[in-house]
Amino acid sequence: MTETLAGALAAPLADPDSFVDGPPWALFRELRDTDPVAWTPEPEPHHGFWSVTRHADIVAVSRDWHSFTSSRGVSLEELEDDQLEHRTSLIDTDPPQHGKLRKIVAGQFLPRVVNGYETFLRGIVARTLDHALAESSFDFVERVSSEIPVRVLARMLSVPDADHAKLTGWGDRLVGGTDPEFSEALPGTPEYDELRLVPFRSPAALEVFEYGRALQAERRARPTGDLISALVEARIDDEPLSQQDLDNYFLLLALAGQETTRQALTLAMLTLIENPEVLARLQAEPELLSGPALDELLRWGAPVYHMRRTATVDTTIGDTPVRAGDKIALWFPSGNRDERVIDDPDVLDLDRPTVDLLTFGKGGPHFCMGSFLAKLEYRVTLEELVARVDTARLDGPVERLRSNFVNGVKRMPVSVTTR
Fold it and tell me: In the chain, at which end, N or C, are there fewer CB atoms within 10 A of the end residue's CB?
């Protein structure tokens, strides 16, 4: 297929409007079959990118950080050097710097540490569901999936319950940059240019910085052993983190610590509603959630659409040549349904013996550091949910985030009966 034809086929992937009804599964399938590394044009001033849709190619690019760097950013926005200098965080770095930054908090996300949260987490989930299910109809996003991860994050940051709504609101504004409901600086506006050095080009980032700095000052005076204490006590090459590094690291923790898990939980509930036989099976056999069935549900509802890499050399992905400086978008939901790796990928199969999951990345230095915690929150929430819910249905339209980056749901009214 010529680059022109490939661009015409893949062009919708650059448009957030293509995702307002959910992932474009038919387009992903066609790209995997006919042009798995497809040139995708973008409106000026951007220059387009390669869309990688097959599982094996996504894994290969993820692992080869020498040829495909994260240091030019992981979103599709093309950043100039001064923007990178101000906006770079952990996920925008390569080894060895990436490993040094990751090590600062990685110990608090190890399985042996995370498993100690289960009793506390189960209490949070139980109380959240008890309050939500006291009503037969409610917004699942507002009452359940937004509540659970932010409460876990608040504990890890040692911040008060009163700050939960503030943290959630910042998350909405940071990931909603292409959604008119949340965006405060759309491309082409004066505000957009004024915020060019600010992560996500969002005033919310500045508010998070201010909030984080106050917490950092408190921890310097009275360390508590939490994530913020780890940041202010950290040394890299015998030097403390700069205030800019502290700002960007705290912003990443505040966002990643809640937003993706929130969306994963919402997508899981939507999956159970759209597949009542799966809900019935889990009600009868909740132990399935301790095995590969959990990964199967995460395969079905991945909360992140893509991550970007940038080619550092002229090379190939599969059989497709790419040039140094080209942007690469790794489409994880597409890889999760690649027929070449997963049998009958369009079937939600709780008995699938293994799941070669891409939802948290796959190999390489950028495998999701919080994956163990996210899976614990996911499992415990689903275990408590299927134990309480008898039937569930949508009680209105599912309102999705206008984004080709986050597979997000803003509102999802549901009607439930309890067991």
Answer: C
